[in-house]
Amino acid sequence: MTYNAVSWLLDRNVDEGRGGKVAFDDTVSQITYGELQQQTRRVGNMLRRLGVRREERVAMIMLDTVDFPIVFLGAIRAGVVPVPLNTLLTAEQFAYILGDCRARVLFVSEALLPVLKDVIPRLPDLEHVVVSGKDAHGHKLLADELARESDKFTTAPTHPEEPAFWLYSSGSTGMPKGVRHLQASLQATADTYGKQVLAVREDDVCLSAAKLFFAYGLGNSLTFPMSVGASTVLNSTRPTPALMFELMNTYNPTIFYGAPTLFAAMLNDEASKGARAGTRLRICASAGEALPESVGHSWKSRFGVDILDGIGSTELLHIFLSNAPGDIKYGTSGRPVPGYKVRLVSDAGDDVPDGEVGELLVEAPSAGEGYWNQRSKSKNTFQGHWTRTGDKYVRDEEGRYTFCGRADDMFKVSGIWVSPFEVESALITHPAVLEAAVVPEADPEGLLKPKAYVVLRASSATDNLFEALKEHVKQKIGPWKYPRWIEVVDDLPKTATGKIQRFKLREH
Ligand code: 3UK
Which ligand 1 atom minimizes the distance to the CA of 390? Predict the structure, then answer.
């Protein structure tokens, strides 16, 4: 049996009569399903002309414009493996990943060329650089290359279980690892979370703050809308609260996907007080980190629309545990997405009872095949039917799951597990605290106790603030978990995807 993801995601829409419908609008250009079909066929021909063969990798360091789906889907159509990279990385990180995946061609947005100037000559496997933009700066210009090609192309007869694209996991510790995702995996996320949780439909207009190079953004802006012939608004710039409100009012999305810090910032943004979230918005989704309960409630009361918190990962491609419309409990990650199974296990690997914390394992139709060239790390994460997430969770008697932190961030105080996340969540419910990060620190006896780094809201420092914060945490979550030390900082170390890097604070 052959299966190519692009036949299902794209050609099917044209066959069903949606060829003239706008698939993507990047605020400068629009592209219809029919035009996208032709452009992706041209990409296929161009890759063949440049000598790229099936299974070889091409890297993409591209902003969210209509060129992103053209290149990504064009490569997959040809059986060539696109590797979209986080556009916010440093030159050294780009050099590492481009070398690791042995990309034959690099597709790059013109604005990102300067960072890559010294990297490009150092890559032995790289043969061509193709620039998306107006000026190729001595390389090849995507528009010119595509204009030369025919829009007739035979889609590669790929296998549903062959690698179709790779995504590098951001790796809060160690080097990023290339996760090999299969041809059938995009459809697997659409058939599960897309159709059964979001219930995405043809008349939806999607807007995602997360970019297409993230697994989260790829599902939000490409897989789910294309799975039903809907439309997507792409944004190539930084998703500030003001810009998000502007896009919402201009394009009237029906689904808005964000992350907790953005939802909180949008609620707090002085300049946007009184702003509206468009007139057609029906649902919001949040992922990347746990959505604080208070943010969910405030958003709902301010805009009248719920936020569905759900957890996904690069390894599993999209969300596998989520709240659902009509079944929301803020402060939890909800229940398994239909099509996914989850387990919570102890360190010994036994299932833990409800109410006890365990590591979350997932059986997923969209799990990656493994990490490229990382046999031992692959064995540790992809264990037969089950994928280990490295997250600690607890299940309540109603079957809902609550996040307790990363397995590697948990620590014991007086023999009892403390989840930094729980202490942080308690801290940020205090009106003086904007953000918090908690790590273990040894007391004079050498015993671990929680230490908190806090970012304060403007002009909220008061005389007895630290004592008040300690008391606040004790009241909220119990006497032994309060931070024995508190330090005020201007900001917290975070990954490019906005996750707090507690290991950096532990090194202090
Ligand atoms: C954490 C969450 C609590 C968790 C992602 C949606 O974030 C995504 O992928 P990454 O590989 O990170 C995965 C890790 O992030 N996390 C994500 N969402 C939540 N923790 N509540 C949440 N709602 O530690 C997880 O293991 O960057 C999110 C879809 C696709 C994704 N790749």
Answer: 26
ipTM field: 0.99
According to DSSP, the residues that pair with 386 across neighbouring strands are 363, 383
pLDDT at residue 173, as a whole number: 57
For the structural domain made of 186-406, what CATH number should be given? 3.40.50.12780
Q: Is it the case that residue 347 has pLDDT exceeding 60?
A: yes
Please give the sequence-ordered ranges of beta strands (E in DSSP) within 27-153, or none if there are none.
Answer: 30-32, 57-61, 81-84, 105-109, 128-132, 140-141
For ligand 1, the distance from its centroid to the CA atom of residue 463, given in whole angstroms, is 38
Alpha carbons 303 and 320: distance in angstroms, whole number: 26
- CATH 3.40.50.12780 range(s) for the chain read 186-406
Assess contact for 309 and 291: CB atoms under 8 A.
Answer: yes
pLDDT per residue over 280-311, tens digit each? Answer: 999 999 998 889 898 999 999 999 999 999 99
Q: Please state the φ and ψ torsions of residue 284, each to the nearest 5 degrees.
A: -120, 150
- Residue 292 near residue 266 (C-beta atoms within 8 A): no
Radius of gyration of the chain measured on its C-alpha atoms: 23
* 287 three-state secondary structure: coil
Instruction: List, for residues 16-52, the tens digit of each pLDDT value.
Output: 999 999 999 999 999 999 999 999 999 999 999 999 9
Return the sign of the alpha-carbon dihedral for residues 246, 247, 253, 256: negative
142, 42 Cβ separation under 8 angstroms: no
CB neighbour list of residue 420: distance below 8 Å, 6 or more residues apart: 405, 409, 410, 411, 437, 438, 439, 450, 502
Q: How far apart are CA 80 and CA 451, in angstroms?
A: 48
CB of 389 closer than 6 A to ligand 1? yes
> CB of 311 closer than 6 A to ligand 1?
yes
- Cβ of 23 below 6 Å from ligand 1: no
CATH of the domain spanning 410-506, picked from 3.40.50.620, 3.40.225.10, 3.40.50.150, 3.30.300.30: 3.30.300.30
Pairing of strands 433-442, 448-456: antiparallel
Phi-psi region of 171 (alpha: psi -120 to 50; beta: other; left: phi over 0): left
Q: Check if 403 has its Cβ closer than 6 Å to any atom of ligand 1.
A: yes
Residue range 28-183 in CATH 3.40.50.11270 = no
Which residues of the chain does CATH 3.30.300.30 include?
410-506
Please provide the average confidence, as pLDDT, over all residues in the chain.
94
d(CA 127, CA 116): 14
CA distance readout (Å), 439 to 337, 434, 442, 484, 502: 32, 17, 10, 11, 6
